[in-house]
Amino acid sequence: MERIPILRMGQVLLVTIQVDMHDQLAVTLQDDLTAKIVDTGARGVLIDISSLEVVDSFIGRILGNIATMSRVLDAQTVVVGMQPAVAITLVELGMSLPGIRTALNVEKGMALLQSSMDADEAVLEVADASLED
Amino acid sequence: MTTRIHEILKKYPSELLAEWIGAMTAGGVRRDALMKEAELREQCAEFLRLLTQATEHGNLTDITGSSFTPAREMLERLSRSRSLQGFSPAETATFIFSFKQPLFDRLRSEYASQPLVANEEMWGGTLLLDKLGLYTTEVHQRAREEVIMRQQQEMMELSTPVVQLWDRIVCLPLIGTLDSGRTQTVMETLLQRIVETGAEIAIIDITGVPTVDTLTAQHLIKTVTATRLMGAECVISGIRPQIAQTIVHLGVDLAGVVTKSSVAGAFNWALKRLHQSVSVPGQRTPGKA
Protein backbone atom coordinates (compact mmCIF):
# COMPACT_ATOMS: atom_id res chain seq x y z
CA MET A 1 0.00 0.00 0.00
CA GLU A 2 1.12 3.52 -0.76
CA ARG A 3 2.53 5.37 2.25
CA ILE A 4 4.05 8.74 2.93
CA PRO A 5 7.49 8.30 4.53
CA ILE A 6 8.13 9.87 7.92
CA LEU A 7 11.80 10.67 8.59
CA ARG A 8 13.25 11.26 12.01
CA MET A 9 15.86 13.95 12.53
CA GLY A 10 16.74 14.19 16.17
CA GLN A 11 13.66 15.39 17.97
CA VAL A 12 11.86 16.34 14.79
CA LEU A 13 9.77 14.20 12.47
CA LEU A 14 9.99 15.20 8.84
CA VAL A 15 7.13 14.51 6.45
CA THR A 16 7.46 15.45 2.79
CA ILE A 17 4.31 15.01 0.78
CA GLN A 18 5.34 14.43 -2.81
CA VAL A 19 2.27 12.77 -4.25
CA ASP A 20 -1.25 14.02 -4.74
CA MET A 21 -3.01 13.44 -1.46
CA HIS A 22 -6.12 11.39 -1.58
CA ASP A 23 -8.34 10.80 1.41
CA GLN A 24 -7.13 7.33 2.37
CA LEU A 25 -3.50 8.42 2.17
CA ALA A 26 -4.19 11.36 4.45
CA VAL A 27 -5.89 9.17 7.04
CA THR A 28 -2.99 6.70 6.91
CA LEU A 29 -0.53 9.54 7.38
CA GLN A 30 -2.47 10.73 10.41
CA ASP A 31 -2.35 7.25 11.96
CA ASP A 32 1.33 6.69 11.17
CA LEU A 33 2.36 10.10 12.40
CA THR A 34 0.60 9.91 15.76
CA ALA A 35 2.03 6.44 16.33
CA LYS A 36 5.50 7.63 15.42
CA ILE A 37 5.33 10.65 17.74
CA VAL A 38 4.52 8.36 20.65
CA ASP A 39 7.21 5.84 19.62
CA THR A 40 10.03 8.32 19.23
CA GLY A 41 8.97 10.94 21.73
CA ALA A 42 9.43 13.58 19.05
CA ARG A 43 8.96 17.21 20.05
CA GLY A 44 8.36 18.65 16.62
CA VAL A 45 6.67 17.72 13.33
CA LEU A 46 7.54 19.41 10.06
CA ILE A 47 5.22 18.81 7.12
CA ASP A 48 6.48 19.98 3.74
CA ILE A 49 3.64 20.42 1.24
CA SER A 50 5.55 22.39 -1.37
CA SER A 51 4.84 19.84 -4.11
CA LEU A 52 1.16 19.67 -3.26
CA GLU A 53 -0.85 21.51 -5.86
CA VAL A 54 -4.40 20.60 -4.96
CA VAL A 55 -5.93 20.66 -1.52
CA ASP A 56 -9.56 20.01 -0.72
CA SER A 57 -11.43 20.64 2.50
CA PHE A 58 -10.88 17.08 3.71
CA ILE A 59 -7.09 17.28 3.38
CA GLY A 60 -7.22 20.71 5.01
CA ARG A 61 -9.11 19.29 7.95
CA ILE A 62 -6.69 16.36 8.28
CA LEU A 63 -3.79 18.84 8.39
CA GLY A 64 -5.57 20.73 11.15
CA ASN A 65 -6.27 17.48 13.00
CA ILE A 66 -2.64 16.38 12.75
CA ALA A 67 -1.55 19.69 14.30
CA THR A 68 -4.03 19.38 17.16
CA MET A 69 -3.22 15.72 17.80
CA SER A 70 0.51 16.30 17.90
CA ARG A 71 0.02 19.18 20.32
CA VAL A 72 -1.87 16.79 22.59
CA LEU A 73 1.11 14.44 22.26
CA ASP A 74 3.44 17.33 23.17
CA ALA A 75 4.90 17.95 19.73
CA GLN A 76 4.65 21.17 17.72
CA THR A 77 3.62 21.09 14.08
CA VAL A 78 4.85 23.42 11.36
CA VAL A 79 3.50 23.23 7.85
CA VAL A 80 5.93 24.62 5.26
CA GLY A 81 6.00 25.50 1.59
CA MET A 82 2.32 26.04 0.88
CA GLN A 83 1.77 27.15 -2.72
CA PRO A 84 -0.12 30.42 -3.29
CA ALA A 85 -2.88 28.60 -5.16
CA VAL A 86 -3.32 26.17 -2.27
CA ALA A 87 -3.43 29.02 0.25
CA ILE A 88 -6.06 30.83 -1.81
CA THR A 89 -8.15 27.66 -2.15
CA LEU A 90 -8.06 26.98 1.58
CA VAL A 91 -9.04 30.55 2.39
CA GLU A 92 -11.87 30.41 -0.15
CA LEU A 93 -13.03 27.20 1.49
CA GLY A 94 -13.18 29.13 4.74
CA MET A 95 -10.37 27.12 6.33
CA SER A 96 -7.84 29.34 8.00
CA LEU A 97 -6.24 26.41 9.89
CA PRO A 98 -5.96 28.45 13.10
CA GLY A 99 -4.00 25.83 15.06
CA ILE A 100 -1.27 25.39 12.48
CA ARG A 101 2.03 27.24 12.44
CA THR A 102 3.47 27.88 9.02
CA ALA A 103 6.77 28.80 7.41
CA LEU A 104 7.87 29.58 3.88
CA ASN A 105 10.32 26.71 3.45
CA VAL A 106 11.89 23.79 5.27
CA GLU A 107 14.84 25.86 6.48
CA LYS A 108 12.67 28.51 8.08
CA GLY A 109 10.31 25.87 9.43
CA MET A 110 13.21 24.09 11.10
CA ALA A 111 14.43 27.34 12.63
CA LEU A 112 10.92 28.01 13.95
CA LEU A 113 10.63 24.55 15.48
CA GLN A 114 14.13 24.78 16.97
CA SER A 115 13.47 28.15 18.58
CA SER A 116 10.17 27.05 20.10
CA MET A 117 11.76 23.85 21.41
CA ASP A 118 14.61 25.90 22.86
CA ALA A 119 12.07 28.17 24.51
CA ASP A 120 10.41 25.13 26.06
CA GLU A 121 13.77 23.92 27.35
CA ALA A 122 14.50 27.34 28.82
CA VAL A 123 11.20 27.34 30.66
CA LEU A 124 11.99 23.88 31.99
CA GLU A 125 15.40 24.99 33.16
CA VAL A 126 13.94 28.01 34.92
CA ALA A 127 11.40 25.73 36.57
CA ASP A 128 14.18 23.37 37.62
CA ALA A 129 16.21 26.23 38.98
CA SER A 130 13.30 27.53 41.04
CA LEU A 131 12.67 24.07 42.39
CA GLU A 132 16.27 23.76 43.52
CA ASP A 133 16.19 27.09 45.35
CA MET B 1 -26.82 32.59 -62.74
CA THR B 2 -24.98 35.87 -62.58
CA THR B 3 -26.72 38.93 -61.30
CA ARG B 4 -26.91 42.24 -63.07
CA ILE B 5 -24.96 43.88 -60.28
CA HIS B 6 -22.15 41.47 -60.95
CA GLU B 7 -22.31 42.39 -64.66
CA ILE B 8 -22.01 46.06 -63.80
CA LEU B 9 -19.13 45.46 -61.40
CA LYS B 10 -17.34 43.47 -64.06
CA LYS B 11 -18.05 45.88 -66.86
CA TYR B 12 -17.04 49.19 -65.30
CA PRO B 13 -14.48 48.52 -62.57
CA SER B 14 -12.27 51.54 -63.12
CA GLU B 15 -15.20 53.95 -63.65
CA LEU B 16 -16.90 52.72 -60.48
CA LEU B 17 -13.67 53.07 -58.55
CA ALA B 18 -13.13 56.65 -59.70
CA GLU B 19 -16.72 57.63 -58.97
CA TRP B 20 -16.65 55.92 -55.61
CA ILE B 21 -13.57 57.80 -54.48
CA GLY B 22 -15.15 60.95 -55.88
CA ALA B 23 -18.29 60.31 -53.83
CA MET B 24 -16.22 59.79 -50.71
CA THR B 25 -14.35 63.02 -51.27
CA ALA B 26 -17.60 64.90 -51.88
CA GLY B 27 -19.20 63.36 -48.80
CA GLY B 28 -16.31 64.55 -46.66
CA VAL B 29 -15.51 61.11 -45.34
CA ARG B 30 -11.95 61.16 -46.53
CA ARG B 31 -9.58 61.91 -43.74
CA ASP B 32 -6.33 62.81 -45.40
CA ALA B 33 -4.70 63.34 -42.05
CA LEU B 34 -5.36 59.75 -41.08
CA MET B 35 -4.96 57.98 -44.38
CA LYS B 36 -3.20 58.67 -47.68
CA GLU B 37 -5.15 58.71 -50.91
CA ALA B 38 -3.06 55.90 -52.39
CA GLU B 39 -3.95 53.65 -49.50
CA LEU B 40 -7.65 54.46 -49.79
CA ARG B 41 -7.56 53.81 -53.52
CA GLU B 42 -5.90 50.48 -52.94
CA GLN B 43 -8.51 49.47 -50.36
CA CYS B 44 -11.36 50.49 -52.64
CA ALA B 45 -9.87 48.58 -55.58
CA GLU B 46 -9.42 45.48 -53.46
CA PHE B 47 -12.95 45.66 -52.11
CA LEU B 48 -14.36 46.04 -55.63
CA ARG B 49 -12.38 43.06 -56.84
CA LEU B 50 -13.52 40.88 -53.94
CA LEU B 51 -17.13 42.05 -54.26
CA THR B 52 -17.07 41.15 -57.95
CA GLN B 53 -15.80 37.69 -57.05
CA ALA B 54 -18.35 37.27 -54.30
CA THR B 55 -21.34 38.19 -56.44
CA GLU B 56 -20.26 35.90 -59.26
CA HIS B 57 -22.48 33.05 -58.11
CA GLY B 58 -25.57 35.19 -57.81
CA ASN B 59 -25.65 35.22 -54.04
CA LEU B 60 -26.53 38.73 -52.94
CA THR B 61 -28.38 38.20 -49.70
CA ASP B 62 -26.29 35.96 -47.50
CA ILE B 63 -23.01 37.67 -46.63
CA THR B 64 -22.13 34.94 -44.16
CA GLY B 65 -21.80 32.49 -47.07
CA SER B 66 -18.48 31.12 -48.23
CA SER B 67 -18.43 33.21 -51.43
CA PHE B 68 -18.27 36.34 -49.27
CA THR B 69 -15.52 35.08 -46.99
CA PRO B 70 -12.62 36.93 -48.70
CA ALA B 71 -14.65 40.13 -48.85
CA ARG B 72 -15.64 39.77 -45.20
CA GLU B 73 -12.08 39.16 -44.15
CA MET B 74 -10.90 42.18 -46.06
CA LEU B 75 -13.57 44.35 -44.40
CA GLU B 76 -12.63 42.97 -41.03
CA ARG B 77 -9.00 43.92 -41.56
CA LEU B 78 -9.96 47.35 -42.83
CA SER B 79 -12.38 47.97 -39.99
CA ARG B 80 -9.90 46.89 -37.36
CA SER B 81 -7.10 49.04 -38.71
CA ARG B 82 -9.45 52.02 -39.01
CA SER B 83 -10.67 51.57 -35.47
CA LEU B 84 -7.07 51.73 -34.30
CA GLN B 85 -6.32 54.70 -36.54
CA GLY B 86 -9.06 56.69 -34.88
CA PHE B 87 -11.87 56.64 -37.43
CA SER B 88 -15.38 56.75 -36.00
CA PRO B 89 -17.75 53.82 -36.65
CA ALA B 90 -19.85 56.03 -38.92
CA GLU B 91 -16.85 56.96 -41.01
CA THR B 92 -15.91 53.34 -41.34
CA ALA B 93 -19.38 52.31 -42.41
CA THR B 94 -19.63 55.20 -44.88
CA PHE B 95 -16.75 53.60 -46.74
CA ILE B 96 -19.28 50.97 -47.85
CA PHE B 97 -22.40 53.14 -47.99
CA SER B 98 -20.82 55.70 -50.29
CA PHE B 99 -20.44 53.00 -52.90
CA LYS B 100 -24.22 53.01 -53.39
CA GLN B 101 -24.26 56.22 -55.38
CA PRO B 102 -21.87 55.17 -58.18
CA LEU B 103 -23.32 51.65 -58.36
CA PHE B 104 -26.93 52.81 -58.58
CA ASP B 105 -26.06 55.48 -61.12
CA ARG B 106 -24.59 52.80 -63.32
CA LEU B 107 -27.61 50.53 -62.83
CA ARG B 108 -29.96 53.37 -63.75
CA SER B 109 -28.14 54.29 -66.92
CA GLU B 110 -27.62 50.67 -67.98
CA TYR B 111 -31.22 49.63 -67.50
CA ALA B 112 -32.85 52.95 -68.40
CA SER B 113 -35.29 51.11 -70.65
CA GLN B 114 -36.27 48.60 -67.95
CA PRO B 115 -37.16 50.65 -64.87
CA LEU B 116 -38.59 47.62 -63.05
CA VAL B 117 -35.37 45.65 -63.43
CA ALA B 118 -33.33 48.65 -62.32
CA ASN B 119 -35.51 49.06 -59.23
CA GLU B 120 -35.24 45.45 -58.29
CA GLU B 121 -31.48 45.42 -58.67
CA MET B 122 -31.16 48.60 -56.64
CA TRP B 123 -33.13 47.01 -53.82
CA GLY B 124 -30.87 43.97 -53.88
CA GLY B 125 -27.79 46.18 -53.94
CA THR B 126 -29.06 48.27 -51.04
CA LEU B 127 -29.66 45.21 -48.91
CA LEU B 128 -26.23 43.84 -49.69
CA LEU B 129 -24.33 47.05 -49.06
CA ASP B 130 -26.30 47.73 -45.86
CA LYS B 131 -25.32 44.34 -44.52
CA LEU B 132 -21.68 44.87 -45.39
CA GLY B 133 -21.76 48.33 -43.85
CA LEU B 134 -23.27 47.06 -40.63
CA TYR B 135 -20.70 44.31 -40.59
CA THR B 136 -17.89 46.86 -40.61
CA THR B 137 -19.53 48.72 -37.73
CA GLU B 138 -19.78 45.53 -35.76
CA VAL B 139 -16.13 44.66 -36.26
CA HIS B 140 -15.18 48.24 -35.48
CA GLN B 141 -17.02 48.04 -32.20
CA ARG B 142 -15.52 44.67 -31.36
CA ALA B 143 -11.99 45.96 -32.02
CA ARG B 144 -12.66 48.87 -29.68
CA GLU B 145 -13.94 46.58 -26.97
CA GLU B 146 -10.87 44.40 -27.26
CA VAL B 147 -8.68 47.47 -26.77
CA ILE B 148 -10.66 48.44 -23.66
CA MET B 149 -10.45 44.92 -22.25
CA ARG B 150 -6.70 44.83 -22.80
CA GLN B 151 -6.28 48.20 -21.15
CA GLN B 152 -8.33 47.06 -18.17
CA GLN B 153 -6.15 43.99 -17.84
CA GLU B 154 -2.99 46.06 -18.05
CA MET B 155 -4.26 48.55 -15.51
CA MET B 156 -5.12 45.72 -13.17
CA GLU B 157 -1.58 44.36 -13.41
CA LEU B 158 -0.02 47.79 -13.15
CA SER B 159 -2.04 48.65 -10.10
CA THR B 160 -0.64 45.89 -7.93
CA PRO B 161 3.08 46.49 -7.64
CA VAL B 162 4.71 44.50 -4.90
CA VAL B 163 7.89 46.24 -3.80
CA GLN B 164 10.65 44.85 -1.68
CA LEU B 165 11.30 47.28 1.18
CA TRP B 166 13.98 45.38 3.00
CA ASP B 167 15.44 41.94 3.25
CA ARG B 168 12.43 39.67 3.91
CA ILE B 169 9.93 42.57 3.92
CA VAL B 170 7.66 43.30 0.96
CA CYS B 171 5.09 46.06 0.64
CA LEU B 172 1.98 46.31 -1.51
CA PRO B 173 0.68 49.86 -1.83
CA LEU B 174 -2.93 49.69 -2.96
CA ILE B 175 -4.45 52.59 -4.87
CA GLY B 176 -8.06 52.92 -5.99
CA THR B 177 -11.23 51.00 -5.34
CA LEU B 178 -10.95 47.34 -4.53
CA ASP B 179 -13.49 45.15 -6.28
CA SER B 180 -13.49 41.38 -6.08
CA GLY B 181 -11.67 40.92 -9.40
CA ARG B 182 -8.88 43.23 -8.37
CA THR B 183 -8.57 41.78 -4.91
CA GLN B 184 -8.09 38.38 -6.48
CA THR B 185 -5.19 39.74 -8.58
CA VAL B 186 -3.81 41.52 -5.53
CA MET B 187 -3.87 38.33 -3.51
CA GLU B 188 -2.28 36.26 -6.26
CA THR B 189 0.53 38.74 -6.98
CA LEU B 190 1.31 39.22 -3.33
CA LEU B 191 1.48 35.49 -2.58
CA GLN B 192 3.53 34.86 -5.70
CA ARG B 193 6.01 37.56 -4.74
CA ILE B 194 6.28 36.17 -1.23
CA VAL B 195 7.31 32.83 -2.72
CA GLU B 196 9.79 34.50 -5.09
CA THR B 197 11.44 36.77 -2.55
CA GLY B 198 11.13 34.52 0.48
CA ALA B 199 9.68 37.46 2.37
CA GLU B 200 8.53 36.85 5.91
CA ILE B 201 6.50 40.00 6.34
CA ALA B 202 4.09 41.61 3.90
CA ILE B 203 2.79 45.12 4.42
CA ILE B 204 -0.49 45.94 2.70
CA ASP B 205 -0.85 49.71 2.58
CA ILE B 206 -4.36 50.96 1.92
CA THR B 207 -3.66 54.69 2.14
CA GLY B 208 -4.81 55.05 -1.48
CA VAL B 209 -8.05 53.16 -1.03
CA PRO B 210 -10.89 55.67 -0.75
CA THR B 211 -13.57 53.45 0.78
CA VAL B 212 -13.69 50.13 2.51
CA ASP B 213 -16.93 48.17 2.57
CA THR B 214 -17.60 44.81 4.16
CA LEU B 215 -16.64 42.96 0.99
CA THR B 216 -13.30 44.74 0.70
CA ALA B 217 -12.58 44.16 4.37
CA GLN B 218 -13.42 40.50 3.94
CA HIS B 219 -11.07 40.27 0.97
CA LEU B 220 -8.31 41.90 2.99
CA ILE B 221 -8.82 39.42 5.82
CA LYS B 222 -8.71 36.58 3.30
CA THR B 223 -5.42 37.86 1.93
CA VAL B 224 -3.99 38.12 5.41
CA THR B 225 -5.10 34.56 6.20
CA ALA B 226 -3.65 33.21 2.95
CA THR B 227 -0.34 34.94 3.68
CA ARG B 228 -0.29 33.37 7.11
CA LEU B 229 -0.98 29.94 5.62
CA MET B 230 2.05 30.37 3.41
CA GLY B 231 4.19 31.05 6.43
CA ALA B 232 4.55 34.82 6.25
CA GLU B 233 3.01 37.55 8.35
CA CYS B 234 0.85 40.37 7.16
CA VAL B 235 0.36 43.92 8.40
CA ILE B 236 -2.30 46.30 7.11
CA SER B 237 -1.26 49.93 7.20
CA GLY B 238 -2.61 53.29 6.15
CA ILE B 239 -6.02 52.94 7.71
CA ARG B 240 -7.47 56.44 7.76
CA PRO B 241 -9.72 57.62 10.61
CA GLN B 242 -12.79 57.44 8.39
CA ILE B 243 -12.01 53.89 7.30
CA ALA B 244 -11.39 52.87 10.91
CA GLN B 245 -14.82 54.27 11.78
CA THR B 246 -16.48 52.45 8.89
CA ILE B 247 -14.83 49.18 9.80
CA VAL B 248 -16.04 49.42 13.37
CA HIS B 249 -19.54 50.52 12.31
CA LEU B 250 -19.75 47.59 9.90
CA GLY B 251 -18.75 45.26 12.69
CA VAL B 252 -15.84 43.79 10.75
CA ASP B 253 -13.63 41.75 13.00
CA LEU B 254 -10.02 42.71 12.44
CA ALA B 255 -8.83 40.97 15.56
CA GLY B 256 -5.86 38.79 14.76
CA VAL B 257 -4.78 41.16 12.02
CA VAL B 258 -1.93 43.51 12.81
CA THR B 259 -2.84 47.06 11.79
CA LYS B 260 -0.77 50.23 11.78
CA SER B 261 -1.73 53.74 10.80
CA SER B 262 1.21 54.35 8.49
CA VAL B 263 3.70 52.42 6.38
CA ALA B 264 6.43 53.77 8.62
CA GLY B 265 4.74 52.22 11.63
CA ALA B 266 4.29 48.93 9.86
CA PHE B 267 7.89 48.94 8.65
CA ASN B 268 9.10 49.63 12.15
CA TRP B 269 7.02 46.75 13.47
CA ALA B 270 8.39 44.48 10.74
CA LEU B 271 12.00 45.37 11.56
CA LYS B 272 11.44 44.67 15.23
CA ARG B 273 9.79 41.40 14.38
CA LEU B 274 12.84 40.35 12.37
CA HIS B 275 15.17 41.59 15.10
CA GLN B 276 16.70 44.17 12.81
CA SER B 277 17.30 47.86 13.26
CA VAL B 278 18.38 50.85 11.24
CA SER B 279 20.97 53.13 12.73
CA VAL B 280 21.61 56.68 11.60
CA PRO B 281 25.35 57.54 11.51
CA GLY B 282 26.33 60.30 13.94
CA GLN B 283 23.33 59.68 16.13
CA ARG B 284 23.49 57.52 19.16
CA THR B 285 20.80 54.94 19.41
CA PRO B 286 18.66 55.59 22.48
CA GLY B 287 19.25 52.15 23.92
CA LYS B 288 23.04 52.47 23.95
CA ALA B 289 23.29 55.91 25.53
UniProtKB/TrEMBL annotation, chain A:
Source taxon at top rank: Bacteria
CDD domains given in the database record: STAS_RsbR_RsbS_like
Alphabetized PROSITE patterns for the sequence: STAS
Database matches in InterPro entries: Bact_StressResp_Reg, STAS_dom, STAS_dom_sf
Domain STAS: 2-113
Protein name: RsbS, negative regulator of sigma-B
From TrEMBL, chain B:
Record flagged with keyword Cell membrane: no
InterPro entries: Bact_StressResp_Reg (IPR051932), RsbRD_N_dom (IPR025751), STAS_dom (IPR002645), STAS_dom_sf (IPR036513)
Highest taxon in the source lineage: Bacteria
Keywords: Phosphoprotein
Signal peptide residues on this chain, from the entry's feature table: none
Pfam families documented for this protein: RsbRD_N, STAS
Domain STAS, first and last residues per copy: 159-274
Name of this chain's protein: RsbR, positive regulator of sigma-B
Organism: Archangium gephyra
